[in-house]
Specification:
The protein is of the alpha/beta class. It is about 30% helix and about 20% strand. The protein has an 8-stranded mixed beta sheet. Strands 4, 5, 10, 11, 12, 13 and 19 form a 7-stranded mixed beta sheet that branches. A two-stranded antiparallel sheet has the order 1-2. Helix 4 runs parallel beside helix 24, helix 10 packs across helix 14 and helix 11 packs across helix 14. The radius of gyration is 25 Å and the shape is globular. It binds flavin-adenine dinucleotide. The site of flavin-adenine dinucleotide has 40 residues, from helix 4, strand 11, strand 14, strand 18 and helix 24.
């Protein structure tokens, strides 16, 4: 079949919403104000973008996440262009007590903690380069089948809230979040009869085949349906079923130490004696949590990950006699738009009138009013579409209390002055925007390479194909997207989850671009490069093709059934987390994120990067620490 015919068959010419950017200006999509996009863009250029009618980023589809326009100036800095290449920054004349760079959960939490510790008086400005607040914690809205469907652009769930620090728990409580409500709100029975399938693609395994019953059917029976040789089938079934101590003669502590120092791929081949031909089945199991394949993740980390919620079960550990892993809380603490709700609740608390309502229920369907975020007389202002390019103490850190912040907005350089500053932005960018930091600190910050990943969401006309197949998860070890899942079944407030298969549904698809064979930080750099070179149309083609190949047998028709696509491209995704196979065993005071986050004069450093762990609670804790350091330096 010709490429053109296949594209038509997949619906590449179908009218779905692909609204992202017009001339670098975010435009409103659908929603209550449903303005004409071109008109909205023209108005946006005339006035403040965010005040334009129809400005509502959560409803934008197409390429989102680190969307076009967010990295232009940052990449110019990286490439050596001076921050003031466009001339002197126009002084806005604005002065603040605190300027926060980065409007993610850490930046918003920093503004919250600062205001709390300093009373209601301080004037605060939050600057962010995206068209929406929340950082990774973004909201995706679709309209399909005459209803609103919610989903998350990045940060998915409140994971293990019982393990949150008192500070992070306290913040959730102050915002009105009661995590125990999810035991009712999350419908754990809806998918109970649906299981996991594996999709074997022809490029990797020689033939396209969807095999249902993964992790539920006895392995030999399940694998008998897969396009694998008899030998490979036997090998995979063996490691899943035999209970062998592959590390005989070692104590439990020695076993754990050993597992921490070998890759999972090596463990399978060298210790479990798995035939190397069987490795492609497992290769991408680690993508979701670690953003690299099993050759770059330690066996110990896979052991710790256990049978995670996404159906990737790591064999080889059951016969080792290791202690039972601590039982995790269920993975149910999920708002319909993920942790974007936390960001929205923070904004509600910081900027009265920006997010209407008062409770964790009404926030879910509340429509944020972006025109309110940056009001002249407000004590807290949130300025979007603003990339900070330079941060400097006005007269050196010791001589002055003031910090000058320059940023680019709508192509123009502007500056504000502040008494104190929290950099809650990507830590790896700080050396470029704050060159006055000590060299050693800049070197440490530059080490913290973030991992790229893509959270694709597809609005479907209905989910009958999944019902027919009896699955809600699909693991695709060689697929363009390696994992696909029906959305989390959760209803909060007025928002009711589509629980009937005839209803429209949001589908989650995960892609983690990486380059096996390189060290993880280089894999992330290569993956990021790949992302930046992949246009939305290429993603769309892959998405439609993969869905057609996985679900076509159950009546799915990509041209008919896809109602909208949002590709959340996180070129700078998960925070750097040390990898026992590649990173030195640093002493506490030498850890690059510890060296990197040191307060410098009136500038403190937050973001989950500063805690070297990609979790919401870490972003909150780091914000609290940074604000505490500023307070300490004042006293
Ligand atoms: C895809 C994905 C899924 C995740 N899922 C979960 C999950 O389920 N549970 C969980 O607990 N954690 C999850 N995490 C991790 C979690 O999102 C983060 O730990 C947390 O939200 C990070 O918040 P942050 O404010 O530290 O950083 P960010 O969210 O990255 O916010 C920083 C902001 O600063 C902006 N910025 C950077 N440079 C500049 C500049 N020069 N000028 C202006 N602005 C700038 C950035 O663009 C960004 O908007 C996930 C992360 C990703 C990427």
């Amino acid at each position: 079949m010709s490429e053109e015919k296949r594209s038509r068959e997949l619906g590449m010419d179908c009218a779905i919403t692909r609204r992202d950017f017009l001339n670098g200006v975010a435009i409103g999509a659908g929603g209550l104000l449903a303005a004409d996009p071109v008109l909205a863009a023209l108005i946006a250029q005339e006035t403040s973008q965010e005040k334009a009618p129809g400005y509502y980023p959560p409803a934008l589809t197409g390429m989102r996440g680190n969307h076009d326009g967010t990295f232009t100036y940052a990449h110019q800095l990286r490439d050596g262009k001076p921050w003031d290449a466009a001339g002197a920054a126009a002084k806005t004349g604005e002065t603040y007590d605190l300027v926060v760079v980065g409007g993610g959960i850490s930046g918003l939490a920093a503004a919250h903690f600062y205001r709390k510790s300093a009373g209601k008086g301080p004037r605060i400005l939050v600057l962010d380069n995206h068209d929406d607040f929340g950082g990774h914690a973004k909201r995706n809205e679709f309209r399909a089948g005459g209803r609103m469907l919610l989903s998350y652009g990045g940060t998915q769930s409140i994971e293990s809230p019982g393990k949150y620090s008192d500070v992070a728990k306290g913040l959730l409580t102050e915002l009105g979040i009661q995590t125990d409500r999810f035991y009712k709100a999350y419908d754990r029975s809806l998918y109970s009869k649906l299981g996991t399938a594996a999709f074997f693609d022809k490029e990797t395994f020689g033939a396209d085949r969807l095999v249902t019953g993964m992790n539920a059917t006895p392995w030999p029976e399940f694998l008998a349906q897969a396009p694998l040789s008899d030998g490979v089938r036997r090998e995979i079934a063996r490691v899943y079923t035999e209970r062998v101590d592959y590390l005989p003669g070692l104590s439990k502590e020695e076993k754990l130490a050993k597992l921490g120092k070998i890759s999972y791929a090596d463990y399978l081949v060298k210790y479990c004696k798995l035939a190397p031909e069987a490795l492609p089945f497992f290769q991408t199991f680690t993508h979701d949590l670690f953003c690299v394949g099993i050759e770059a993740v330690s066996a110990g980390a896979c052991y710790e990950a256990g049978d995670d919620y996404q159906s990737f079960t790591y064999p080889g550990f059951d016969g080792l006699g290791l202690p039972e892993r601590e039982k995790e809380e269920p993975y149910i603490f999920h708002f319909p738009d993920g942790n974007a709700t936390i960001a929205r609740l923070l904004v509600r608390a910081l900027v009265p009138g920006a997010v209407p309502g008062q409770t964790m229920d009404d926030v879910v369907t509340a429509r944020a009013d972006y025109s309110n975020l940056d009001e002249e007389n407000a004590t807290v202002r949130i300025r979007l579409n603003s990339t900070v390019v330079h941060v400097q103490h006005a007269k050196g850190p010791k001589a002055s209390k003031e910090v000058e912040i320059a940023y680019v907005r709508s192509g123009k350089l502007a500056s504000v002055q502040t008494k104190e500053c929290v950099l809650a932005c990507y830590n790896g960018m700080i050396p470029y925007i704050c060159p006055e930091l000590p060299e050693k600190q800049k070197e440490a910050l530059a080490y913290l390479v973030k991992a790229p990943l893509v959270y694709t969401h597809v609005a479907l006309r209905n989910w009958t194909a999944f019902q027919k197949l009896g699955v809600h998860h699909i693991v695709a070890p060689g697929g363009y997207h390696t994992y696909t899942a029906l959305d989390f079944p959760v209803s909060v407030g007025q928002y009711q989850f589509p629980s009937n298969p005839e209803e429209p549904m949001v589908l989650f698809m995960l892609r983690t671009p990486c380059r096996p064979g390189l060290a993880p930080r280089d894999q992330h750099r290569a993956g990021r490069m790949e992302l930046m070179q992949t246009p939305f149309a290429a993603f769309e083609r892959h998405i439609r093709d993969q869905l057609a190949r996985m679900l076509g047998g159950a009546g799915f028709d990509a041209a008919r059934d896809v109602e909208g696509i949002t590709v959340n491209r996180w070129a700078h995704g998960y925070a750097f987390t040390p990898n026992a196979l590649f990173d030195p065993d640093w002493k506490e005071e030498e850890k690059p994120w510890v060296v990197g986050r040191k307060r410098f004069g009136n500038i403190a450093i937050a973001n989950s990067d500063a805690g070297a762990d990609a979790y919401t609670n870490v972003a909150i804790d780091q914000a609290h620490r940074a604000v505490g350091e500023l307070a300490e330096s004042r006293s």
